[in-house]
Design goal:
The structure is a single chain. With about 325 residues, this protein is of the alpha/beta class. The protein has two domains: about 230 residues, Rossmann fold, CATH 3.40.50; about 70 residues, no CATH class. The chain has twelve helices and eight strands. It has an eight-stranded mixed beta sheet, with helices on both faces. Helix 2 packs across helix 12 and helix 9 packs across helix 10. The model has no long low-confidence stretch (mean pLDDT about 95).
Length: about 325
């Protein structure tokens, strides 16, 4: 990928259509993690610590650190997170996989819960990184819900941290519209899968939830009720709608002042394409938005390589931005 423009995405047989592109991640399983890796516990102001894992080539870090943020009910071992990390490390990038509050690796030391816009935790985690890891700056990479967190963080001005650039993949920038899409009949199986995963995370041993919160979580019949009865009241929002509107990254895109890459498939079965096509991206000069007709949700399984297209484009874009030569 040495050309000046992003190469087009073309589906690889037999993964045709948004659903098969999305489901391939589950059908084919998670690849093995890299051996080694360094565990970090990053302090929060309330005494909690977020768990992170650093993977890199041997020797001192000589490039910006890529901080990879997982999606809803995910963690450092989510399939798409592991695949992205492996490719970036193979291209010479140090990658830190950050586990948000309540995600499995963080739960023993941060038993609370994250939400789609809790950027304060992200900021504190970055502040807690050793200087030797951030000497050349930081790049944020968010997947799915983690992408909303990253874009919101960037739109808030970067919290006076050395974040040089950001990438968001398959991001629900309109949380209300995404929830509404998830509740449609065609997405019933997806919605049940996600709700079960959200409940499992929220009620897992060691999770810090009250008796009333446990009851609300258990009683939730869909993702909207989960957010309305548990997430919104826990974080001081009136209801789920207030939570969605207060934290949707789409409201903050104009505030992004550092180079940012947005990758989104318009056939994503979870996120309406209209969330992206309704935006005049030409009025947002710091954002390169690449909208593909196909690709699904965190799919992008394309021709020419077994590495997902979004991971190859991410590495290509980073090499171009930091003038590292063609990949």
């Amino acid at each position: 990928m040495s050309a000046g423009t992003v190469p087009p995405f073309r589906e690889r047989p037999p993964w045709f259509g948004g659903d098969l592109q999305t489901l391939r991640n589950v059908v084919c399983g998670t690849p093995p993690d890299l051996p080694g890796g360094e565990r970090l516990l990053l302090p929060m102001p309330d005494g909690d610590r977020l768990a992170a894992r650093l993977d890199r080539h041997a020797g001192p870090i000589s490039r910006p650190l890529v901080v990879l943020v997982h999606g809803l009910a995910g963690s450092e071992v989510s399939g798409s997170v592991v695949v992205s990390m492996r490719h970036l490390v193979s291209q010479g990038w140090p990658v830190l996989r950050l586990n948000l509050r309540g995600a499995l690796p963080s739960r023993p030391t941060a038993a609370g819960h994250y939400h789609a816009g809790r950027t304060g935790d992200l900021a504190e985690a970055l502040r807690g990184l050793p200087a030797e890891f951030t000497r050349y700056g930081i790049v944020l990479l968010g997947q799915s819900l983690g992408g909303n967190l990253v874009l919101k963080f960037m739109g808030e001005g970067g919290h006076d941290l050395p974040v040089l650039a950001a990438i968001a993949v398959s991001t629900p920038i309109d949380l209300a519209a995404t929830c509404a899409r998830m509740l449609t009949r065609r997405n019933f199986i997806y919605q049940r899968y996600m709700l079960d995963a959200m409940k499992r995370d929220a009620l897992a041993p060691g999770a810090a939830v009250s008796i009333s919160e446990r009851a609300a979580i258990a009683a939730a019949k869909n993702v909207y009720e989960f957010d309305d009865r548990f997430i919104a009241p826990r974080f001081g929002y009136r209801d789920a709608q207030d939570y969605y509107e207060s934290n949707a990254a789409r409201h903050l895109l104009a505030g992004i002042a550092r180079p940012t890459l947005v990758l989104q498939a318009l056939d994503d079965p979870w996120i309406p394409g209209a969330c992206y096509t309704a935006i005049d991206w030409s009025r947002l000069p710091m954002i390169e938005a690449v909208l593909t007709p196909r690709g699904g949700h965190l799919g992008f399984h394309g021709r020419g390589s077994r590495v997902p297209w979004h991971d190859r484009v991410t590495a290509w874009w980073l090499a171009r931005k930091f003038r590292l030569g063609p990949n």
